[in-house]
Write a structure and sequence with these properties.
Blueprint lengths: L12 H14 L4 E6 L10 E8 L29 E8 L16 H33 L9 H12 L2 H25 L2 H26 L2 H10 L6
Helix pairs in contact: 2-3, 2-5, 3-4, 4-5
């Protein structure tokens, strides 16, 4: 075998292999310690995994403080490091990990409050529709129709603030409207007035139901609805 140092030297493969093996065996190397405290652990405490690497201030393989072959001028710098944590994971313990989440079961109180939220949303929608028609009547027929805007205004505010008083005012507005529709049906007997009477009677029943539910709520429940709505219930 020819060694690349400018001269021809013949050595057996066994001698070269033995010399390299002796150099690698005598060199200091890094020590790796894996710490796993997953088992055992308390049932309600997180566990930690960590891998520690400890390396001496200087480590060399081969002659001259670096890795190389005998007679060669190629040297690698020595590795140095201080003990350090290279991987640390803090995993909270969850005894139900991997289990399918079951359906959310609502309490009777939550069911009742969600019904109030749904009715309040419906009241706001109906009041907005009433306000739209009043605006159209005012624009195309007579400016006097704007005087009827007080009913939808109280209705919208009752649905927004869960106010029982404003809901009662809105219900009173619809009672007047139903009575007027009944007068038109009796005197003119047309399908248009009959249909309007049926629609207004149904809306009046919804508003009255909303008033009755609001009367059963406590001050704390109303404040809870005003703060978060449906998000503050579930």
């Amino acid at each position: 075998m020819t060694v690349p140092n400018g001269t021809d030297q013949t050595q057996s493969d066994a001698e070269i292999a033995a010399r390299l093996q002796a150099q690698f065996d005598s060199a200091p190397v890094a020590s790796v310690v894996h710490v796993d405290t997953k088992v055992p652990r308390p049932s309600n405490q997180p566990y930690t995994q960590a891998t520690m690497v400890s390396m001496p201030p200087s480590a060399s393989v081969g002659g001259g403080g670096g890795l190389g072959f005998p007679g060669s001028g190629h040297q690698q710098p020595a590795a140095s490091a201080q003990p350090a944590t290279i991987n640390a994971i803090n995993v909270p313990y969850n005894p139900h990990f991997g289990e399918a989440a079951g359906p959310t079961v609502l309490t009777p109180e939550q069911t009742r409050l969600l019904a109030v939220v749904s009715l309040a949303r419906a009241i706001r929608t109906l009041a907005s529709i009433d306000m739209f028609f009043i605006f159209m009547y005012t624009l195309f027929f007579s400016p006097l129709f704007i005087g009827a805007a007080w009913g939808p205004f109280f209705g919208y505010m009752s649905g927004k603030e869960y106010s029982c008083f404003r809901a009662k005012v809105y219900a009173f507005y619809y009672i007047i409207k139903v009575c007027f529709d009944a007068y038109l049906v009796v005197n003119f007997s047309t399908f248009f007035y009959l249909f309007g009477f049926m629609v207004d009677a149904f809306i009046c029943s919804v508003v009255v139901r909303y008033c009755r539910i609001l009367e059963t709520l406590e001050a704390g429940e109303i404040a809870r609805l005003r703060e978060g709505g449906a998000a503050g219930i579930v």
